[in-house]
Amino acid sequence: MKKRTFKFGIIDLLIVVFVIAALVGAYVFLNNGDANDKDSKKLESVDVYFTVELKTQPEELKDIVKVGDKVIDSIKGGELGKVVKVEPKKATNIMENQDEGTFANAEYDDLYDVYVTIKGKPTSIKKDIMVSGQVIKVGRTAYFKNKNYAYSGFIVEMDVKK
Amino acid sequence: MITDNKGKVFGKLNIIDLLIIFIVLIAIVSTVFKFSFSSQKEASVKKNDIVECMLKVENVRMYTINAFDEGVDVYDESTAKVIGKIKKFEYEPSMQYLTKNDGSVVKSVMPERYNAYITLECPVKSTKEGYILNGNNLITNLSTLRVSTNKVEVVSKVINIKASK
Question: How many CA atoms lie within 13 A of A105 on its CB side?
Fold first, then answer.
């Protein structure tokens, strides 16, 4: 049988370099914020508490999230934490009073803003405090779900506690 | 002919090989251009300075106000670099214009909304075009900056830059 010779040209080398670079890039991206050995003990000793605002929920859905629910990261699928507090409040909207020239908060009769506080384990507490794959900061959007619901909302409070 | 009967350029390279070479050349030229431009910016730098930079964050709720602390590091989100520490933090009720039924325009307080004023002490490099923050972001008055601490992230506007005392 004729022996096949393997030729490795410049183009093949370029493709190999690109593939290695892509793999390294993917590893760095997916592991962004992962702690090294020195930080892991610090991460184990603290919990992150963050409150997510679910805006204008209808009456029938305001109680769907329950204390004790375990929730996962909707984006990357990792464990996000456990719900420790749920506080529904009547939803409001800023309206213009064009007679008096003022702004006022108007309350909806049948819509609620639900504030869900989640306790999670941080995966990084350097520049960004991260839980699972999500950056936890006031002003950012958090995405969470379990088998009964999937939600996203603004983070309105956060704290790191021992 | 430039291509032979197998479609290869000069009998050696096919279209996929050509595309790969083209992409690599684009990447190299872009990298060289970017670093050349950075070095030109460096050449026009006059001196290193410490400035007080005031950022205005408009129309936010008390949740955002409560998340800020004096003395913490502030990051530029576009470069992920520390640009300074919060020297002073103040806030006031936010006011917006609205048109009344009689056609007049008045300014009124927005309920539960505030404007925050964050004073940072920033090491910068002064240039004739503006100030270069840590991380090579060039700012002037009225620049928009997305900034964060480790607790909060906001969009802000630079409203005053002055030499630090």
Answer: 8
What element of type H or E holds A71? strand A70-73
A contact test, residue of B65, B74, B82, B153 with most A CBs within 10 A = B153
Nearest CA to A138 out of A72, A22, A48 is that of A48
* Nearest partner of A57 among A86, A95, A97, A94, judged by Cα: A86
User: What distance in Å separates residue B151's CA from the closest CA in chain A?
Assistant: 5
Mapping DSSP to helix (H, G, I), strand (E, B) and coil, where does residue B50 land? strand
Question: What is the pLDDT averaged over residues B73-85?
Answer: 92
Distance of CA A15 to the CA centre of its chain: 35
Task: Indicate the SS3 state at residue A89.
Answer: strand
Task: Report which DSSP code applies to A64.
Answer: S
Tell how far CA A37 is from the center of its chain: 24
Closest by CA position to A131, among listed A76, A68, A66 = A76
Closest alpha carbon to B89 in B113, B109, B69, B67: B69
pTM to 2 decimal places: 0.74
Q: Is B146 on the interface with A (CB under 8 A)?
A: no
Residue A75, strand partner residues: none
pLDDT in tens, B88-146: 999 999 999 999 999 999 999 999 999 999 999 998 888 887 888 886 788 888 999 99
8 A C-beta contact, residue A70 and residue A135: no
Please list the helix, strand and coil fractions of chain B in percent, rounded to the nearest 5, in that order. Answer: 20, 50, 30
Which of chain B's residues have a Cβ under 8 Å away from the Cβ of A104? 111
Among A103-117, A136-150, B94-108, B117-131, the minimum mean pLDDT is found in: B117-131
Percent of chain A with pLDDT over 70: 87
* pLDDT score recorded for residue A121: 93
Given CA atoms B103, B104, B105, B111 in this order, what sign does their dihedral have?
Answer: negative
